[in-house]
Amino acid sequence: MKRLIFRANAGPAIGSGHVMRCLSLAAAFQELGCECVFLCSGSELEGRIKAAGCRFCKISGAGDVLDPELPALVPLLQELHPDLLIVDSYQVTSSYLSALQRFCPVAYLDDLAAFAYPCEFLINYNLYALDWPQRYTDLYSGQTPKLILGPSYAPLRAEFRGLSPRAIRPAMQDVLVSTGGADPEGIAVRLLEALPAYKQWQHTRFHFMVGALHPDLPRLQALAAAQLNVQLHINVQKVSDLMVSCDAAIAAAGSTLYELCACGTPTVTYTLADNQLPGAAAFAAHGLMCNAGDCRRNEAFIPHLLDELSNLSPAPQRTAMSANMRQVVDGEGAARVASLLLESAC
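Above: the chain sequence. Below: its structure as tokens.
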């Protein structure tokens, strides 16, 4: 049995996205008969990882800086003898990845093309990565890793495979709101506080999807309880059902956008970090989503966000957008990545 190790973290500051997309990959590897081990510096998602049939190991270190953990990590790798190590963290350094390469092939999940990552496989499933092959080649003075680029490799969970075509309702009755695991700009709270003043939305049901790690959860619960057209969904187990049931969505520009594409849910996206800017711009440029812009230090952001949502009211607009989204992401990305890596590395 092949053994794969995933190195990813989750927590209130960074959210759960890194671990969750690795869990999607792990499920695809498990379908191919592999054992999957997660190394994390925190225990926030230990239960979720173990429930997925993966082994969990807590690694001691600085948490937000990876190099100091190497003295603890190296003996663990010597014990586990992995066939492949998949790293998903913005805190990687060249020295860190080079140290891992001494034990097995390394695959790195990237969004930034920040430097020449020492690895055998470089995965960037973002839409804008289709325009980046030369950018990656230019980063490397020597041999370029095997590049796995574009949304056909988006590592979504099995629930997003083979979804039925969406039926577009004439009116926009239900709107999903996903602000990410950490929501550092407090968009969920700001939107909930603002909604009562917008009478045109009082007959629209807003479904706020938040994780158990959301830092403002008590405040969100109080605000949602006071509004008849708001429902709070905490730690949703089957996200696709909620996405499919809604006529449109508001979502921060992270991995959730690819899940919404697989569901064909017309979406208004926005950015809250510099690394999200290329993604939101690419989705808008391809006509796949509306882009409400950057929410940081923007007092007029919520009104603008709701204006963009109004643009999705016409059914023909939502019909066209939904069809385009489904063409870009089909939900088979995790299986493609797993098969490719096993064939090439193991």
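The mean pLDDT is 93.
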